[in-house]
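Q: Given only this backbone (325 positions), what sequence would you predict?
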């Protein structure tokens, strides 16, 4: 019973975080449109950062509260969940194509980001400001590259994401005052949700006798990945399974570059030994497996989707029962 309250509050924090991130993106996108900011810029900044807001808020908040190991666990766990769950679940409904424009390029960027993050962690633990600066520079370079590709008409992904927001449930706010209210409510919600998750994650870890890293790898990682999982599952149910792989790759790149970069700049991010022994390599293996599908241009079908989900269940069991440590 003692663990019931922090568990429920942590779940509440996750719900608030997911809703607040969506509200913030819609309000900020509507404001930017009123101010005449091009859709491409909005997509590359507000949309891109907004969809990674849960991981960003939780990870930076964890560092500021002195539990940077939760931040590392959150990013690693989220990236694993994004591949095995956010691709595995929709693949059970409809095959996910991997031969779309830009997918091979973004898979390469994701591999580079993963290797860079692991390499920097081996170079110095905890991860501090200079490693954070290198990672954050990665997202700046990536966004700049995407901007020039999209402007040249080579990559329309960002513009498609903006169209999805406009056509989404509720659409964009209709009044400037509602825009401001959305932004304000989103920011407050992100702060409140982040505080609930970090504070109760610490309490839960203490009560269960596990580290904050385990909480970050499991409950928090799944919760902060819910926007990606929900987006791709809903898109697949509507017959648009092609959005899944781009969403996952983009999210993973942002987690490694922007989220871990910001966390490293905010303070020391302790990487526990268990991540070096097990979780880093699971994250790297899932990324390379995804790359194999992209290189061979084979769709991710139902059998592969079922295998992905099974692998995630086994991974959760390994973390939960301490087999990974």
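A: Predicted residues:
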């Amino acid at each position: 019973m003692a663990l019931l309250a922090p568990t429920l509050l942590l779940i509440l924090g996750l719900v608030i975080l997911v809703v607040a991130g969506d509200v913030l993106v819609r309000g900020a996108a509507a404001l930017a449109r009123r101010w005449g900011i091009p859709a491409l810029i909005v997509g590359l900044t507000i949309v891109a950062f907004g969809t990674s807001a849960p991981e960003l808020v939780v990870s930076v908040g964890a560092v500021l509260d002195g539990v940077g190991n939760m931040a590392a666990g959150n990013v690693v766990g989220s990236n694993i969940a994004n591949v095995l769950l956010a691709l595995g679940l929709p693949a059970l409904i409809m095959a996910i194509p991997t031969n779309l424009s830009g997918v091979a390029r973004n898979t390469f960027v994701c591999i580079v980001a993963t290797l860079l993050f692991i390499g920097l962690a081996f170079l110095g633990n905890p991860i501090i400001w200079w490693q954070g600066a290198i990672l954050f520079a990665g997202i700046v370079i990536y966004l700049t590259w995407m901007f020039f590709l999209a402007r040249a008409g080579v990559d329309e992904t960002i513009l498609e994401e903006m169209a999805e927001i406009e056509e989404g449930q509720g659409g964009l706010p209709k009044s400037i005052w509602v825009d401001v209210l959305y932004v304000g409510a989103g920011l407050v919600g992100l702060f409140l949700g982040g505080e609930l998750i970090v504070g109760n994650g610490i309490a839960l870890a203490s009560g269960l006798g596990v580290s904050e890293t385990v909480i970050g790898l499991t409950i928090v990682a799944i919760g902060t990945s819910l926007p990606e999982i929900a987006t791709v599952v809903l898109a697949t149910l509507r017959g648009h399974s092609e959005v899944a792989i781009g969403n996952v790759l983009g999210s993973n790149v942002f987690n490694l570059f922007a989220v871990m970069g910001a966390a490293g700049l905010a303070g020391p991010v302790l990487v526990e030994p268990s991540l070096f022994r097990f979780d880093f390599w699971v994250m790297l293996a899932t990324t390379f497996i995804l790359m194999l599908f992209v290189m061979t241009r084979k769709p991710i079908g139902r059998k592969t989707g079922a295998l992905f989900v099974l692998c995630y269940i086994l991974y959760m069991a390994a973390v939960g029962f301490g087999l990974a440590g």
